[in-house]
């Protein structure tokens, strides 16, 4: 599904990613871990197509096609979802109405008619029940006064409704309390299937106690320096990132 080849990228002349190689197949969950400032968020931004980052070498293929020249919006339409793509606060626009509009905009861009209201309602009901999201939440104004956990709930609901092929969840280093951890991990676990793939980016080993990844990659200073199975997350929890750095230094 996703193939990253020798990717180097940076911002304002600063090199951040320094030759990343990564393959993600449908049905897989990959975790990317690493110390603060190692380039995790930059990697997710480059995959999703945020314009401020400059790619200096390499390529990103999605379903065998380079996506580097495509706008973030077009990538999203192809099925690439980045968490917090829609962090805006919109008073008076509910969680539900926002996602309805987003879905119909994507359909319009693909030359399709609006989703029939009855189908939309059915989908909202299905997904909200699956994720145990109550109706009251769905009628709240988008992001207005949301707690950390509620922001996560909204994000996972958006992901469930948009049904992306590739979801990238960049769990930033703050605000992941137990409630938020549970919401994100339950959501991912319920939404994972043989047809989609998930990349979970986190500084925290703890998240991976809840979302069990198929592969774990450690990013240090813009390079993937170690890859392994889920046991690598446990090893990191025990020994910390300094262990990986020391191993690297020792060659
Ligand atoms: P992580 O998500 O692993 O904490 P980031 O990708 O956010 O790392 O950042 C990697 C490095 O790039 C850091 O040194 C950070 O300061 C720098 N960086 C990221 N975004 C910007 C930006 N917009 N302007 C300048 N430097 C940036
Ligand atoms: Mg950071
Ligand atoms: Mg980050």
Keyword list:
251 residues; single chain; binds adenosine-5'-diphosphate; ATP hydrolysis activity; alpha/beta; 12 strands; FeS-cluster_ATPase_SufC; 10 helices
- Mean pLDDT, to the nearest integer, reads 91
Largest sheet composition: 6 strands, mixed
Fraction of helical residues = 25-40%
Neighbour order of strands in the largest sheet: 6-9-10-3-11-12
Class from helix and strand fractions? alpha/beta
CATH first level: which class?
Alpha Beta
Name the CATH architecture: 3-Layer(aba) Sandwich
Q: What is the number of E strands?
A: 12
Flag low-confidence runs. none
**So what's the overall shape?**
globular
Give the count of helical stretches. Answer: 10
Could you tell me the radius of gyration in angstroms? 18 Å
CATH fold-level topology: Rossmann fold
Strand content: 25-35%
Q: Determine the CATH superfamily.
A: P-loop containing nucleotide triphosphate hydrolases
**What gap, in angstroms, lies between the N and C termini?**
32 Å
Give the helices and strands as they follow along the chain.
Answer: EEEHEEHEEHHHEHEHEHEEHH
- How many domains? The number is 1
Bound molecules: adenosine-5'-diphosphate, magnesium ion
Organism: Leeuwenhoekiella aequorea
Pfam families: ABC_tran
GO molecular function: ATP binding; ATP hydrolysis activity
Keywords: ATP-binding, Nucleotide-binding
